Every structure is written in structure tokens, then in C-alpha cells.
DNA sequence: CATATTTATGCGTTTTCATGCCATATTTAT
DNA sequence: ATAAATATGGCATGAAAACGCATAAATATG
């Protein structure tokens, strides 16, 4: 069998099944795995497939995943994300909302971390999926196209059954008197339940949302354990929250 | 034998078999391999074939096998997507698996369509979310990073409670004897349940996957109502499936 | 017709290519 | 953490190609 023939066959298989395994091909074509690997390498160099450990993937296969997410990462949110990620330890069950700060948290997770992340937010789930070692659980229900999160009775019931170690909420408003507030009723319900279902509640927000209000109440300051912003904890604007018994990072 | 004769013979062989081996030709025509090589070189210079190490290939070989497939199969899938999308009517509840054909179906949905789509496939959900009028429901559970789909007991239980009008399955193997098969156990389970939970079952696949087998059984042909490929329904390869009582589009 | 000249072919030698094998990293899964 | 699978780079080997050269047949030339 000619080299080109073999490569054509491989390419055919890749396009057919979206993936090939070196070991399988080697056995099938009866050449050494070295040869297969060299072939895959060449085809990969020519851009005809994507080489991965153990075999190769078709290009169209991998395209799918990178489609939906183009969050412009602000430095402030990156800082918040890093502080938040540092709280998570191996083995934890972590419940999270959606939002850009949460996405940044997901990106800041150390690769070695082994934990379970539970969320109804599709962008968040997409980020968690990139991580090599964390277990990802999606809360199902009706999908809100705006918020890109699953909402509804089903989702709420599901979250109620969870007992998480940590809950990360990206919030849009926090106020010393009224606590955190929302402008979407369904999402407010979800966040309330998430708070109830977690041992510790962490709120993440950029500082400009501090001392702002929205119509729908989520929780009081007393329900919040940790508040994360991009500011250093001794910033004056955070003082009232520390005084209210919240740990500020 | 004259040189021209020899070259004509070689060319004939190339066009007939899509490939020739220098060694074989040399033996066949009883000239030295050098001569064959020189012939191949000349023919290659004239653009009549493609010289490779060990022999030569016909042009059509490269055209068909190489450049064709990746783009071609995308087009094929678009055709499938359109046929599939045409089956859906306002008000329907539609259960779908993941896979590239399903994605194309999602893209082919008419903007005015009002229906409810239920799936555990994240790429599929992302597509459905782009649509202005359809309701999207996500099946929750553990996320399989490979398949980008939610899998597990929870997901299965959820699907069991659904009674959908239509079920679209992107399948990787269908065979006249064994029906449809899978190589992932969890996904096979999901597909089985989806079939049980739907009035009508539609299988979508490019024709290359017809009459192929994989290890895990999903369902028999009798469970399938409609089969969609990129081929016209009267293609010979589809005949056995029509005879088996499947509606082929 | 004798003899250059071109063309086609084969042969040996040297290079290059394709492939397998192995020892050692690296990655992945358990 | 550990075992299994996979990757990497070097090396050996046989097969194919390239190159130069010799030869012989075909063709041209005076």
C-alpha cells in the first residue's frame, strides 16, 4: 500500500467518524503505530486533521466548541477570578451562577484542581469543560436565551437537592441595606436556592456595582460569607461590608 | 515494445486502478524499473498522473479522496439538515441528540418556526439558542467532555418523562441486520431512551455510514420511522431500508 | 555507405525515503 | 500515586530514486 493511499484512507476515516485512534488504524492497515503517527503528523501539518494524543480528530468536530464564547476579559474581572479560584480546594462541590466574573474564575482554575462544578449557565459550563480534571454537572431546564442559563421549576428543584461546599454568585448589585438584588425574577429565584444549597456563599462583583440597587431581592448581607472585588480588602468602599461581618477578599 | 506504447499502457493502468507500482509494471512490461520510472516522470511532467514514491496515482484519486471530502461532507450534511428541518411543524416537541448532522438541522430551521427543542447536547443547544422563536430545553446531568453532552441516570430519567413528537438522532452506524450502533455506551443508553420517548424516530446520517457497524447496539430498524441521508431516496444503497419499512428521505 | 548524432535503455553506485524498532519521556487513566 | 498507553528521537534496514555512464538501436548527415 502506498503512503498516499494510506493517508487517504486515514483522512477518509477521520471525516467519517470525526475521530481515529492510532492503535486501531495501525491494526487495520497493518503498519506500525509509528507510521500511523507520522502520517497523522503530516496530515496535521497540512491542516487536514487535528492530531491529538492517541489519534486524531476531524477539524469540523473541534470547531463546534469554540463558537459561542467571546467574552472580552477585563483586567478587573481577571483579578476577581483569581481570588475566587483560590478558594476552591480538591474534592469540593461548587455551585455557580453565570456571568463574566464567574467565567474568569473558571479560567483561573489551576489545571491540577479536582473538583465538581455544578451550574446552569451555558457559558460557564463551556469553560469548565475546558478544564482537564474537574467534573462538570449541568443543571437542566428551559434555556433562557438572554441569560444563557437554564431556568424554571425543574432547575430549582434540582438545585434544592444539592448540598454544595461553595457557591459562587456573579452579582450585579449589592447594597449595605438591601443586600444583593437582581432585575430578573427567574434568576433571582435560582440564586436564592443556590444560596440555600451551599455551605458558604461567595459573591463576586466589580466594585462599580457596589452600593447599587435593582428591583428584586436575592439575599441579605448576613447570607453572604465572602465578597470578592478587584479592590484590595482595605479599600474604604468595602469597609461597611467588613463591618457587616462579611469576609472581603 | 515502443516507448509510446508502454506509456499508453501505463496511463491506461493508472486510470483503471487509480494507482500503479513501479515494481509491478517493470515486471509486467519486462523493462527495468529505471525505464518505468523515467516513463512515470515524463507522464507526471505532462500532468497525466501523479508520481509518488513507489509508483504513481491517478489525478482523480487525489481529487476524489482528498480535497473532496472535508468540504463535500459539510455540504452533504447541509442537505440532510434541510430535509430534517422540513419535518418539524409549529408546536412540536422535538428531542434531539448531538452530532454534526443535527447541528446542520438546527441551522436549517426556518426562523418563523415555533417549536420546543429538547437536548442534552451542548453544541446543539447553542445552535437552538440562536433561533428567535423556538423554546429550548436543556437536559441536565454530568457533562461528558468528549461528547459534549450530558449523560447519566438523571438525564435518562428526565428523558423518560418526556413525550416528544419527533426524535432526531445523528447516528454513526446503521446496518440492515443490526440496526443502529454506537461506540459509546452512555450515549447508546441515551439514544435508546430518546427513541422510547418519542412518537416518531428520525435517523440522520451521511451515506458513508450506511452499512457500517459499531460495538454497542442502539435499536433495530423497526424502531426507526424515517431515515435521512444526503442521497435521493431512490438510491440503490437505500433500497434495503425502504424494504425494511423505513421511510427514506 | 560510413559515420556522427540522437534516443532509449540498462547497470552500478550513491542518496534519499519509508518504515520498523527501541529506549526514554510524557500523557492519560485508575 | 501508579500503571498503562502514547509520544519522541535516534538508529538500522531495505526499497526506491537519482545520477553518471555504457551500450545499442534509431536517425541524420555528408
TrEMBL record, chains A, B:
Keywords: DNA-binding, Repressor, Transcription, Transcription regulation. Gene3D superfamilies: 3.40.50.1360. It comes from Niastella soli. PROSITE patterns: HTH_DEOR_1 (PS00894), HTH_DEOR_2 (PS51000). InterPro entries: Carb_Metab_HTH_regulators, DeoR-like_C, DeoR_HTH, NagB/RpiA_transferase-like, Tscrpt_reg_HTH_DeoR_CS, WH_DNA-bd_sf. Residues 3-58 form the HTH deoR-type domain. Pfam families: DeoRC, HTH_DeoR. This is DeoR/GlpR transcriptional regulator. Coiled coil: none annotated. SUPFAM superfamilies: NagB/RpiA/CoA transferase-like, Winged helix' DNA-binding domain. It comes from the Bacteria. The lineage of its organism: Bacteria, Pseudomonadati, Bacteroidota, Chitinophagia, Chitinophagales.
